[in-house]
């Protein structure tokens, strides 16, 4: 990723906006962009979702492979989560091996889903010690206008919750849905113009400071946290963000569940 | 799955026999690159068209413009290409002891030599005059054949931008923002009580009262949204 | 008979997906699908789903790739990991490198590169769902996206493949036909001049079959070109 120039004027303008409780696109401090969520859009994936938040668009696709279980966990399958920010998604994204930023992105999303325990890995066992399912969640950025973290996490969990294990293709019986018991939701906040805001867009991200990513599970249990970029925050600020994340998480979780009426 | 029937049409002959641009219907026509626009004989070629084997051909996606015997295309989207005399807003991307490199939104960075800078500076003191990341209002002085350009800050009103906000819109929407004889822009300035300086590269400097700035930005946002809706709605 | 004697076309000349020999799969085109790009296009062709995005012209980095007399086209063809029935490991492979190269060379024949010396135009082709003939879809989508970005071009490249199944020459092979077919002839056509800028072939075709496949491609290209032009004028095809 080439490092884009941060116009000084943008930073001072964002400061002025924050002082007047305004944002570049007229949103309130903790207001997200409109979210569009679609499932089953990729013909060759066993589960898929597309998320659009403003001009940020991402895809998630779930594929299954068989694997040999790890010796210390012979009765369990595995989950792998890979995020790719390819050059198609923005001028600042260059070709080449994954950047540190995109690896961070991939690992933070992975932790949120894995640690929530939403996938019962023992359900993925086919023959103990010999064969198990490996669930691979690939996240793909189509257009990056800020906050890929939340978009990836939302697309990821939605795709998983709508995935089908292709047992027929592997001659292992009938196809069955992947059991996903929880819906972890990530909410990301970034300090822009001195205060934290929710769902920063591309320009806010460019002129912003540190970010905080919070992943909450169904019962508001915390499953993953990450602080990124330069900057320091106070305990009081963090408490406020946790409170906001609980509210927002509930809203997004209901949105994910609303697509599952058929099952 | 339903297939699409392939008709065996001889498109080539049909296109070659098309009427020339003098045909009035063609004046408001939308074209795609490669489209034949008739005989080139007796026509001046403007922007977005070339002549191949005595025929005029579109090279851009846009609307055909016939002005006298000049035929050109008003492109729907276009990259900013600097021309001498353009007023532009640039960001300083880097500097050496006596040169600033300026991002003016063109395919290539422009050069601002110290001799054309805003004030006297010691050799090696470029950053103390304008620092990296700062914005300037400047004019394109010359454009070489290889598209590298030189900008100047010597001139009326050219300066470092210290306050306000810089916004972008696609260069092809500038015409709509400014309006006939600058009417729309003048009205916007009056309503918002802001100073609005429009760079030819699609960057605007808005300076004034905070609420006025928001007003200008909302106008730009709706302009961009309108343009998008029109393209997608198929009205064009 | 084809490999393994898989019967893919019946006595009435109807193919396994209901098409006749000269029919193209259903196509839809939408512009502006990557809002942050300078130009973009999504093309669905059968169950192929391809996104092409354009960035530039911009300064070419590193400096050694700059050309003093013209712009360089930096084309990247890539298949997303979930685009095929078996997952693809991310990263550049030999196949996508070759397709990127021939796609770049096909586009270089129409893009007026001499207007932007020393700069670079990035062409990103992402296959998000693959059936058969992704290189053709990618090349066609890329040329529509270039036109959408306002890059000057002398023509649009329309690419389509014909081949042979069960000894019958057919247009626009689908997945099964591509797997079990006996030949594949992808071409990139300039619809306004009838010239070719992209040509590959593998398999076995008699001179007569070759001519038939060639003619199918030429005719299909004209039809697909009309779809592309329609999309460029109104933002999408079909309406």
List the main descriptive attributes of the protein structure presented here:
A: 263 residues; alpha+beta; Ribosomal Protein S5, domain 2; four-stranded antiparallel beta sheet; 27% helix; B: 236 residues; OB fold (Dihydrolipoamide Acetyltransferase, E2P); Ribosomal Protein S8, Chain: A, domain 1; 16 strands; disordered N terminus
What does this 3D model show about the protein?
The complex is a heterotrimer of chains A (263), B (236) and C (239). Chain A is of the alpha+beta class. Chain A contains five helices and twelve strands. Chain A has one domain: GHMP Kinase, N-terminal domain (Ribosomal Protein S5, domain 2). In chain A, the strands form three sheets. In chain A, strands 1, 2, 3, 4, 5 and 6 form a six-stranded mixed beta sheet that branches. A four-stranded antiparallel beta sheet of chain A has the order 10-9-11-12. Chain A has a two-stranded antiparallel ribbon with strand order 7-8. In chain A, α2 crosses α3. The longest helix of chain A has 24 residues. Chain A starts with 7 loop residues before the first helix and ends in a 5-residue tail after the last helix. Chain B is an alpha+beta fold and 236 residues long. In chain B, 21% of the residues lie in helices and 33% in strands. In chain B, β9 and β10 form a beta hairpin. Chain C has one domain: Ribosomal Protein S5, domain 2 (2-Layer Sandwich), CATH 3.30.230.70. With 239 residues, chain C is an alpha+beta fold. Chain C has four helices and eleven strands. Classes of the chains: A alpha+beta (263), B alpha+beta (236), C alpha+beta (239). Chains B and C meet through α1, β1 and α5 of B and β3 and α4 of C.
Measured by DSSP, the beta-strand proportion of chain B falls in 25-35%
Beta-strand content estimate of chain A: 25-35%
Termini of chain B, distance in Å? 32 Å
Helix content of chain B: 10-25%
Radius of gyration of chain B: 22 Å
CATH superfamily of chain A: GHMP Kinase, N-terminal domain
Low-confidence spans of chain B: 1-27, 232-236
Mean pLDDT of chain B: 81
Structural class of chain B: alpha+beta
Do you know the CATH topology of chain A? Answer: Ribosomal Protein S5, domain 2
Number of helices of chain A: 5
What string, H for helix and E for strand, traces the elements of chain A in order? HEEEEHEEHEEEEHEEH
Silhouette of chain A: elongated
Series of secondary-structure elements of chain B, N-terminal to C-terminal:
HEEEEEEEEEEHEEEEHHEEH
Note the main sheet of chain A: 6 strands, mixed
The total tally of domains of chain B equals 3
Average pLDDT, all residues of chain A: 92
């Amino acid at each position: 990723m080439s490092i884009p120039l941060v116009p000084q004027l943008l930073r001072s303008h964002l400061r002025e906006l924050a002082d007047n409780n305004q944002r570049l696109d007229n949103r309130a401090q903790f207001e997200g962009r409109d979210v569009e969520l679609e499932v089953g859009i990729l013909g060759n994936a066993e589960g898929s979702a597309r998320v659009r938040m403003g001009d940020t668009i991402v895809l998630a696709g779930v594929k299954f492979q068989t694997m040999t279980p790890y010796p210390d966990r012979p009765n369990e399958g595995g989950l792998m989560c890979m995020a790719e920010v390819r050059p198609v998604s923005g001028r600042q994204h260059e070709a080449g091996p994954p950047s540190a930023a995109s690896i961070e992105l991939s690992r933070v999303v992975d932790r949120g889903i894995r640690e929530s325990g939403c996938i019962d890995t023992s359900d993925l066992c086919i023959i103990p010690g010999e064969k198990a399912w490996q669930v691979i969640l690939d996240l793909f950025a189509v257009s990056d206008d800020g906050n890929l973290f939340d978009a990836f996490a939302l697309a990821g969990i939605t795709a998983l919750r709508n995935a089908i294990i292709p047992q027929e293709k592997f001659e292992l019986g009938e196809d069955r849905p992947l059991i996903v018991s929880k819906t972890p939701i990530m909410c990301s906040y970034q300090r822009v113009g001195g205060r934290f805001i929710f769902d920063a867009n591309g320009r806010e991200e460019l002129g912003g400071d540190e970010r905080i990513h919070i992943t909450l599970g169904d019962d508001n249990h915390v499953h993953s946290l990450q602080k990124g970029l330069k900057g320091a925050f106070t305990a009081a600020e963090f408490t406020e963000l946790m409170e906001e994340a609980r509210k927002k998480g509930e809203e997004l979780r209901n949105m994910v569940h609303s697509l599952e009426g058929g099952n | 799955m339903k297939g699409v029937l392939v008709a065996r049409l001889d498109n080539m002959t049909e296109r070659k026999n098309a009427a020339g641009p003098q045909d009035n219907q063609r004046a408001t026509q939308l074209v795609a690159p490669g489209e034949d626009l008739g005989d080139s004989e007796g026509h001046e070629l403007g922007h977005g068209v070339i002549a191949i084997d005595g025929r005029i051909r579109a090279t851009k996606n846009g609307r055909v413009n016939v002005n006298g015997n000049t035929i050109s295309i008003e492109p729907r989207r276009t990259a900013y290409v600097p021309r001498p005399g353009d007023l532009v807003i640039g960001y300083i991307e880097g500097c050496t002891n006596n040169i600033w490199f300026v991002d003016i939104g063109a395919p290539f960075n422009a050069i601002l030599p110290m001799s054309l800078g805003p004030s006297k500076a010691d050799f090696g003191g470029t950053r103390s005059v304008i620092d990296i990341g700062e914005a300037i209002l400047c004019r394109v002085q010359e454009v070489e054949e290889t598209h590298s350009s030189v900008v100047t800050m010597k001139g009326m009103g050219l300066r470092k931008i210290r306050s306000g906000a810089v916004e972008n819109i696609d260069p092809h929407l500038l015409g709509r923002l400014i309006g006939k004889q600058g009417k729309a822009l003048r009205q916007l300035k009056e309503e918002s009580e802001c100073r609005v300086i429009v760079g030819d590269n699609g960057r605007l400097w808005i300076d004034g009262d905070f609420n006025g700035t928001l007003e200008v930005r909302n106008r730009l946002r709706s302009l961009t949204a309108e343009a998008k809706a029109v393209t997608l709605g198929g009205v064009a | 008979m084809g490999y393994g004697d898989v019967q893919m076309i019946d006595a009435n000349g109807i193919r396994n997906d209901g098409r006749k020999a000269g029919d193209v799969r259903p196509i839809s085109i939408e512009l502006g699908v990557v809002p942050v790009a300078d130009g973009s296009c999504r093309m669905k062709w059968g169950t192929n789903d391809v996104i092409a995005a354009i960035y530039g012209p911009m300064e070419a980095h590193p400096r050694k790739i700059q050309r003093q007399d013209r712009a360089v086209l930096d084309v990247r063809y890539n298949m997303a990991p979930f685009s095929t029935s078996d997952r693809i490991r991310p990263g550049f492979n030999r196949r996508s490198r070759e397709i990127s190269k021939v796609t770049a060379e096909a586009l270089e024949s129409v893009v007026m590169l001499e207007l932007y010396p020393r700069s670079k135009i990035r062409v990103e082709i992402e296959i998000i769902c693959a059936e058969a003939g992704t290189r053709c879809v990618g090349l066609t989508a890329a040329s529509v996206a270039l036109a959408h970005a306002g890059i000057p071009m002398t023509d649009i490249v329309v690419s389509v493949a014909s081949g042979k199944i069960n000894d019958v020459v057919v247009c626009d092979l689908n997945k099964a036909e591509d797997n079990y077919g006996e030949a594949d002839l992808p071409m990139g056509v300039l619809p306004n001049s009838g010239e070719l800028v992209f040509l590959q072939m593998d398999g076995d075709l008699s001179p007569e079959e070759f001519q038939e496949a060639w003619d199918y491609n030429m005719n299909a290209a004209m039809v697909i070109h009309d779809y592309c032009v329609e999309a460029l004028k109104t933002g999408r095809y079909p309406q």
